[in-house]
Design brief:
With 192 residues, this protein is of the alpha/beta class. It is built from four helices and eleven strands, in the order ααβαβββββββαβββ. The strands form three sheets. It has a seven-stranded mixed sheet with strand order 3-2-1-6-9-10-11, sandwiched between helices. A hairpin with an 8-residue loop joins strand 2 and strand 3. Helix 2 packs parallel to helix 3.
Length: 192
């Protein structure tokens, strides 16, 4: 099931269309896609010892838990994003698979404040849609755009990987100067 929006849609309309299409993905399709994502991410994130930022899925985002568990077993350190304030970059707190999370101020599960902040080497970024040129469409608040720009200032080698269902690919996302591009996108069908 591919998302086939009309051409030349503005971001707001494109976002609504893509979110609607993502809502039609069945739980069985989502679970199979999550396992496919894990297989491809394990190949894409090399070696051991990197700090990898994942996320807790909301609003039908593809679940990266299985990939995170395998990356942890391989020896990577995990962290999760925490939204601190509107228009502010995300921070990343260490997270171990077996450790409990708490509900953050935006209703998303986050590591507790007692966990240290980390600077990730790899960021797995959820998205609403993506195109072949590495543009991503999120929910419109700009958290990941701001975070990616700031992260690249302190760690230019950081690798930003968009994670999505293959059906979230669209022909074109209208990019603006403040939009941060992805280094790669991984779906259940592979990476690009």
């Amino acid at each position: 099931m591919a998302i086939e929006p009309k051409k030349n849609l503005d971001k707001k309309t494109l976002r609504a269309e893509c979110l609607s299409a993502r809502e039609r993905i069945t739980p069985e399709e989502a679970r199979a896609a999550s396992l496919g994502i894990a297989k491809h991410l394990i190949r894409l994130v090399p070696g051991t010892g990197l700090v990898v930022a994942g996320y807790r899925p909301v609003r039908g985002e593809i679940d990266v838990f299985e990939a995170m568990a395998q990356l942890s077993e391989r020896g990577h350190t995990l962290c999760l994003p925490v939204m601190m304030a509107p228009r502010a970059p995300l921070i990343f707190r260490r997270w171990k698979i077996s450790h409990p999370l708490e509900v953050g101020q935006y209703g998303i599960e986050v590591p507790p404040e007692t966990e240290p902040e980390l600077v990730p080497d790899v960021v797995l970024a959820p998205l609403v849609a993506f195109d072949k040129d590495g543009h991503r469409l999120g929910y419109g608040a700009g958290f990941y755009d701001i975070t990616i720009r700031e992260l690249r200032k302190v760690k230019p080698t950081a690798h930003i990987i968009g994670v999505a269902f293959a059906s979230q690919e669209v022909a074109h996302i209208p990019a603006e100067p403040h939009d941060a591009k992805l280094d790669a996108v991984v779906t259940e069908k592979g990476g690009q």
